Each structure stands twice: as C-alpha cells, then as structure tokens.
Amino acid sequence: MNGRQGAAGAQAPGEILAGLRAGMVARVVPWMRDALAAALQDLDARAEANPPSPPLIEDRADVSLLLREVLVYETRWQQQIDVLLEGWPRMKAIGGGQLTLMAEDDLRAQLVGAPVIDALEHRFRDIVDLVDRRLYTLAARMGGESHPRNPFAPRALAETFLRAFTALDSSVRVHALVLRHFAKLASDRLAAVYQWSNGYLADAGCELSTGHEGAFLSGLPPAANAGAGTGSPDEGAAQDRLRSRLAGRRRAEPQPESVPRRIRDQEMDSLLSLLQSERGVGLDAAPGDAQPTSARLRAGLDRIGVGIGIGLGSAVRTPWQEASIEVVGRLVDTLAAHAALSDAQARALQRLALPLLRFALEDPGLFDPPLRPVLRVLSSIVRAWDGNPARGPVERAMQRIGDEAAAALMLDQTSRAGQLEALAARIDAEAEPHRRRADAVATRLWQSMQGRERLEAARADADEALAQLRTQARLPATLAGFLAQHWRQWLVQIWLRDGSGSARYRDALAIGEALVALDAESDGHAIAGRLLQLEPGLRECLAIGGLHDDAATLELSRLVAEFADPDAPKGSDPPEPLAAAAGSSASHAMEIEGIAVGDRFARTLDDGTRQALTLAWLSPLSGIALLVDAQGARQSVLDAASMQRAIEGGELRRLVAGDPVEHALGVIAAAVEAGEPGG
C-alpha cells in the first residue's frame, strides 16, 4: 500500500462507493446528449444522400424530441444507475429481482442491446476484471458474502442507458440507432473511465482481490502469491525457442534478497488493455527519441501500473513476460528497419506491438514456425505498406487493406484463432487479385522487351556471321544476295527457335561457309555433287523466306548458273545490317552480381515518399534490368552498370523480397544466438 492509499484508507466503504458513483456518473451521463446528437447527425446525412422515406422522417422527429428533452433522459439514466446501487453489494438485477413476466421495456432493452453489450464486454473484459477485483475488496469490507455485480460494467451501463427510454418515447428502430452511437462513444471513452475508477479505488485502499472473499493479492505471503499467477506458460505447453532463450538468461541473472511479487497474468492483461485503449499513442516516439519499442512497452506498462495502484517496485514482470516484451519489440523494430514505411505507417506498426504482445502472452509457441495467423496478418500488413506511396489505384487499395487489417488488430476484433484465420483469408482474397493483375502486366511487359531484344541479338549474330564470310573472299552478286537475304533470315529464325548454340544453327553456318568455298571451286563435277548435298538445307533456307517448289528451284538455278560461269563478276556493296543498333549481340552481355528476378528495391520520389520497385526481368543477353511498380507498370530500365551504381549509391535500397515476418524473426534469432544483449 502506497502513501496515497494509506491516506485514503480512512474513508468508510460507503463513502468510497458514493465517490465512485459520483465520478462515474459525471463522466458517463453526458454521453446521452452526445449519442443523441450523433444519431440526429446520422439521420440528417441519410436524408441528404437520398429522398427521405416516411420511417426516416419519423425517426428524425423522435430523435429531435429526445435531444430537446435530454436533461430528462440524463436524469432517468442516473436513476437507473442508482437503482442498481441500492443495497450494493447485495445488488438486485436490472428490472427487479423477482421472477415475473418480462416487462416490455426490459424485453426491448435485451433484444436491442444484446449484440452491442456483448461487443463492449468482450472489448473491455480485462480492464473491467481489474475493477471487479477491487470491488471485491470493497464488497468484503461492506459485509458482502458473494461476488457483487459491477454496477458500472459495460452491460450495466448499456442496459441502464436503454432503460432511460420507454416504449412511448420512441420506436425500437430509434433505440437501436441511438444505442449504436452510444456504443461507438463507449468504445472510445470507456477505457479512460475504467482507468480512472481503477486509480480511484486503488487510492481508496481497495487492493486487488484474488476473487475469494477476504483474500487479497497484496496480503498474500510470497509463496501463496507465486501460486496466484506466475505469468509463465502452462507446464507442458510448447514454448518457442526465442523467448525460452531470453527468459532463461533472465532467470540466470542474480536475484536481490528481497524479491517483489510477480505480476499475474490477469494483471498483465489488464495493463495491456488499458495501454491499448490509448490506441498506442503512448508508444509514439518523440522527435529525436531512438528508444527501442521494447523500452517504450515497458515504460508504458509501468506508467499504467502506477496509475491503477501497481507501484514501481511493488511488483515485477516475470522472465517470460520480459522475454515476450523483448521479442515483440525487436520484431516491430526489425520490420520497420527493413521496410520503406512512411512516418504514419511506422507509428501504426509500432502501435501494433500492443495486440502482438497480448497474442504472444496467450500463445507460448507464437514465434516458432510455421507462422501463426496473427503473424501472417502482420506480414500482410507490412507487405501492403512497404514502399507504398499510395499514388496509383493499386497502391491506394493495398494501403486500405493494410490500414483496415491493422485497425482490426488494434480494436481487438480478432481475439480468437478463427477470427484471425478469417482476417488473413480476407486480406489474401482482397490483395491477391491486385497482385495477379500486376504480375500479368509485368509479364507481358518483360516478354515484349525480351522478344525485341532476342530478335535484335539474333539479327546481330546473323550480321556478324555474314560479315565474317565476306572477309574470306570477294563474292559474286547472286551468291552475295542469297547470303544477305535468305541465309541471314534463316540464321535469325533458327537462333530464335533453337538458340545460337544448337546443332541446327551450326549446320546453317556450315552451309554458308560451304557456298563461299564452292565459289572458289573450278571443277564442275565437284560443284554439282556438292550442290546436290547442300540442296535439302538450301531448300529449307528458302522456305523460311516463303519460297517453295518452283520458286525455290528457280532461285537455286540462279546459284548453279553463277557457279558454272567462271567469268561471273565478283564484288558487291555490303548489305544493310538487320540489327537496328550495333553491339546488340549477346556477346556484349554484362551480369549484375547479387541480384535476381523478384528482388525488391525502394526509391525516393520527388515528394520524399518511397516507392517499392520489383525486379521483373533481368536480361540474360544484355544484363538490362526492368523495374516495375505495384501495378506492374514500367518505372525504370537500367543497364548493368547503372543498376550497380544505383544500388551502391543508395538510390535503390534493398527491401525484403520474401515474407517480412519470417525474415525479421530470422534476424532476431541470429542476434539472440550471437548473445546480443536485449531487455
């Protein structure tokens, strides 16, 4: 018990309850006006968007009347709360404690409020548990013999709010609308209210009860306290290697003679809920603050603990809790360090450390492979944000997918494994079509570029082969024309179909060399015999150019006639090259070391945002690299030297190409294995 608790401990239990009632009423009753005003604004927006229907006009009139008489309904709400408090801790149920037919108001309240109440109870269960256990202490002091009902729990507040209205005030439809807006307000504001009530009860000396009348946590001896909750995984539960290693190191550290009690699992859940209710704002780094996320998590938990009566030094976290904080903090920091995130995305990622820590404490094997659903969701979020400037439609769609998934984790909408699986499946279902379309666009693009480049390389090789033949001898006009037109095109087609290293390509080159050699032959019988041997290949060559049967025979007869004429004039002008640019042959290819198709890079745009580019194609002929954006559109085409300079100069920064969480956990595991200090 701290000094404030000792000073407040002189208060009578009835006075403490009255003070709690006054503070809670002052904080929550104004929500009546806010909920009605929000409902009226909602109806006005609907009326502007569409021609108002008669039910809409009727609902708007009802809400307007309720808002004008809001003081009456605020008073009714307070009266309903006071009804709950009559005779507390022996508190009677809402609507009376006797077994009777359910009144119409009670039935309406249950039917309208059930879904909203369930959602609020689920969201604030850990924080409310902390209030409940302090109320157990207060109830025991007031002579209570059983667990009292919390008169300010989400169910009690929502039901008393609904009972402030009667069937004569408005329709069930209006009740449902107003309650939805009340739930939105409560979702944003209740955490702060419960944090105040925890602090108030702690200052009043209401210690955290174990839930058994007369037995309070702070009064237990150390041995009993250890059994009340160790904050460690259940015996026999599979523990992941990362946290086991870190927790083992902490246990091996020298312990002080006077060891404070360990923070219980339920207390840690409550602290996390209170910290998460701040939407992670407490984790945001101040300018110039380079603290790791794990340090901010510890500071936030300590701050919340002091606020609800768990003072510094009065309780310490277990080695397993500390290891969980350390791994979660390192995971978030590593993801941020290896991704290209905007400032807003980096803050949002850091805030996700809170729900991640909750999942880590619930699942002792979370960080062992294969990835659990929550880590798959985290990977999808980082992939959606990484290098995303939200300029194009695909980038904006991926930004939205990542934002919605992060909001679902922050709002604790995915507490069950099935919900996480469904969220992961929904993200994949929304993102996969965008990725498939981008892949298809990029594939068409690089295939077109590759086709043009291969054609140029084939033409360049054919030009080079012809140039080599022309250096061997001065050729007569018909032979020179045949080689320049038909033979070169034949080489190009075989290059494209079979490659320059194929047997067919070598045979085609040999035919060209044989024709040049025949031109130097003077023996007519030898020429005729050799031409008969070459005829099948020559006819195939002519067929490539569209000459068949008689047309091919006519072209061959011209060659034969020229070979038979020893006085045929020789020498001709060099033909026009087939290749558009000199030096496009595959022999000029240059490799880029250390990169492969699928690698991702970030570049900085003019406005300072960073954009992720994917290496969609790396030419095996020239080493040219094609970089595309999230839509598959071409953003940059670099030769090998320029690509290398851009990487080395930092213009292109490498990003993680595979799963970001798997990569981050690998980095953390290597650091832990190497014995790097942490936590």
Report on this structure.
The protein has 679 residues and is mainly alpha-helical. It is built from 25 helices and nine strands. It has a five-stranded antiparallel β-sheet with strand order 8-7-6-5-9. Helix 5 (70-85) crosses helix 8 (154-163), helix 8 (154-163) crosses helix 9 and helix 17 (373-385) crosses helix 19 (417-472). The radius of gyration is 39 Å and the shape is elongated. Pfam families: DUF1631. Residues 224-263, 565-584 are annotated as: Disordered. This is DUF1631 family protein. Residues 250-263 have a biased composition (Basic and acidic residues).
Provide the fold topology:
Elements: H1 3-8, H2 13-28, H3 31-49, H4 54-68, H5 70-85, H6 104-123, H7 125-141, H8 154-163, H9 172-203, E1 209-212, E2 215-216, H10 222-227, H11 241-252, E3 261-262, H12 265-276, H13 293-307, E4 315-316, H14 319-337, H15 343-351, H16 353-362, H17 373-385, H18 393-410, H19 417-472, H20 477-498, H21 503-519, H22 524-544, H23 549-564, E5 600-604, E6 610-618, E7 625-628, E8 634-638, H24 640-648, E9 653-655, H25 660-673
Parallel strand pairs: 3-4
Antiparallel strand pairs: 1-2, 5-6, 5-9, 6-7, 7-8
Helix pairs in contact: 2-9, 3-4, 3-9, 5-8, 6-8, 6-9, 7-9, 7-12, 8-9, 11-14, 12-13, 12-16, 13-14, 14-16, 14-25, 17-18, 17-19, 18-19, 19-20, 19-21, 20-21, 20-22, 21-22, 22-23
